[in-house]
Amino acid sequence: QVQVAQSGGGLAQAGGSLRLSCAVSGGTSTVRAIGWYRQAPGKQRELVATVNSGDDFYYVDSVKGRFTIIRDRAKPTAYLQMNSLQPEDTAVYYCNIPPSHWGRGTQVTVSS
Q1: How far apart are alpha carbons 35 and 41 in whole angstroms?
Q2: Cys-Cys with 70: which of 27, 65, 79, 107 at CB 3.0–4.6 Å?
């Protein structure tokens, strides 16, 4: 049974950086991809970034050049490095192991 432990996040000023982590345990051999989603107040959850087993990365246009997924296959853990944060990045961020394993979510708040 795949389990997802999520940590990181918090408060940052515009232009600052934060890092989220997503530690996967149990059934890790079945993990083929890791994704990050976010949900802002009053909005639907949206896909932010993904990486698959072939190291193909996807980033939504609004975070390209600012956010980076970093994989540590030895643990295994994935990180979402978020730089040049903007107030519109404020949301609860979720790690996802397809199809249906989710982290508990962590709040990211960016002040202007």
Answers
A1: 20
A2: 79
Q: How far apart are alpha carbons 5 and 30 in whole angstroms?
A: 17
Q: CA 37 to CA 102: how far, in whole Å? A: 10
Q: Give the strand pairing for 3-8 and 18-25.
A: antiparallel
- pLDDT over 80 at 10, yes or no: yes
How far the first Cα of the chain sits from its last, in Å, is: 41
Beta strands at 57-59 and 46-52: parallel, antiparallel or unpaired: antiparallel
Which residues in 1-112 belong to E strands, given as ranges? 3-8, 10-13, 18-25, 33-39, 46-52, 57-59, 67-72, 77-82, 91-97, 101-102, 106-111
Confidence grade of residue 74 (pLDDT, cut at 50, 70, 90): confident
What confidence tier does 73 reach under pLDDT thresholds 50, 70, 90?
confident
The mean pLDDT value for 93-105 works out to 94
Phi and psi for 62 in degrees, rounded to 5?
Answer: -70, -15
